[in-house]
Here is the input.
Amino acid sequence: MSLLSTQALHVSIGTTTVCRDLELKINSGDRWCVLGRNGSGKTTLLHTLAGLRPPDSGTITAGSRALQKLPRKTVAQQIGLLFQDHADAFPASVLETVLTGRHPWLGPLQWESSQDLTLARNALQAVGLGEMESRMVNTLSGGERRRVGIACLLTQDPQLLLLDEPTNHLDIHHQVRMLELMKQQVSNSRKALLLVIHDINLAVRYCNRFLLLFGEGESLQGNADAVLTSDNLERLYQHPLQAIQGPQATYWLPQ
Amino acid sequence: MRPVLLFTLLLLLTVASLLFSLASGSIAISWQELLAVISGTHSGNELSEQVLMELRWPRTLAAFTTGALLALAGGLMQVLLRNPLADPYVLGISGGAATGALLAMLSGLGSFWLHGSAFGGALFSMLLVFGLSHGAGSWTTSRLLLTGIVIAAGWGAVIGLLLAISPEQGLRGMLFWLMGDLSNAPMPLGSLPVLLVGLLAAVGIGRSLNILAHGEQTAGALGISVKPLRSFIYLLASLLTATAVTLAGSVGFVGLVVPHMLRLLGMRDHRLLLPAAALLGGSLLVCADTLARTLLAPRQLPVGILTALIGVPVFLILLHHSRSLHGEER
Here is the structure.
């Protein structure tokens, strides 16, 4: 049984059709990558899969039940979402922010336990911010703030990780480190991830399933060999690409 | 500051402000007499007892309740609108209440009708903004804020009109009401339960408020049903505000600044921040009202003037202090 699947999913935003009749099956162990031009609706698709907005038609099934019928709290236990941006209107410390990830697991009047604190601290260690727990979030750099978001997602500990441009603001070292961490999460505990990214080469390195959104509702899915061809990628980005044969994979450079 | 220490200080401040208010006034009451009346042993001085129990105690309690209601409502409104500049009045509740109160004064109705009319005006304004901001489309924060601000501006015009057409002798009472005045406040028998229930409800949703402060999308992704929660916060904050303005008119400053004072002291968890705000807001208003009725005695000042006069320097000191502690914020 797949973690999340869609049946005849139709999603649109404004006048843009994101996908039409999309049949997607996300199984544990899958590392999906969504590729598409700016404004093709990748973020909208992610939010729909997380149940934050209703689809135009079709159904999304989480486990064996319809996503729209599940209580929000149950959804948040199964599906976590890293947003493209973080908006902090009020001051909060790094540890407080990461602890918010425990919210779906706590009863209405329950306080965070020492176990929850341990989970949050471990997550901060994992993203390399172990020493920064008492810093205020609004004093962090963009990349550090991004890693706080990832630590929050680790603390939430969902089965399916939806990542909207997880490498935003990260330097090369941390891009690789964070994607490596996510990959480990998926393989160690039978999770799955679906990420949106603009770096095809990182995608090839860390993902094993690909979904291409061409706009106008047209989409294509499959593994790297089947989907990532010059024709498809040039059509996707409307830009000529050069394929360079590397030792382990094919790398793509814009011309 | 550690929560336990802060709460201890706030409780001491609360008790001190209540005693300060009870002991101050045109008739001198010694501390011995005060303690005797509080502890229930008969002091023998009937006048002191009467002044304390029938005049000062109801007014002190009304001041505390009003301040606590406003600070609580302000803290809730700031999270709801995700705007640190929000206060309990930003969405027009006080305007509706003021219109109701001024209409009652203009028609020469008694204080029962004055309070009833103010509460009615506040509820009307609250439902109007709620209904209009729902509109046809989605209920976004900016839509709610804009609707509220425009309605508040509309009430402002109505208030101006009522002031312009009022006879001279009524103007003073109206201005006092608009600035916030506790001299006609009754024993808060109805408002105190509203405060307690409101406080329990607010603390009950405290963890959700912490999450909502990080943004509505984040809250949704962390398992919160954002729309019902927002409606609940709006209705709760509005009811608290309506109750406060009915008691004392539109007392300014408390609702805006008290939650920030506590944030500057490092209190950010709403499960602690909101009860702390109620205590601090209540004490602040008790002190302000005591000064309002004693500074220029026998003349009484509107309490709203004193809340600002005390609050502005305290807030600025805290702000300055916090900058030097944590460095400039980005």
Remarks:
- The first strand of chain A starts at residue 4 and ends at 13.
- Chain A touches chain B at residues 47, 50, 52, 72-77, 80-81, 83, 86-93, 96-97, 100-101, 103-104, 106, 108-109, 111, 136, 138-139, 156 (CB under 8 Å).
- Chain A has one domain: 4-86+159-254.
- Chain A is about 35% helix and 25% strand.
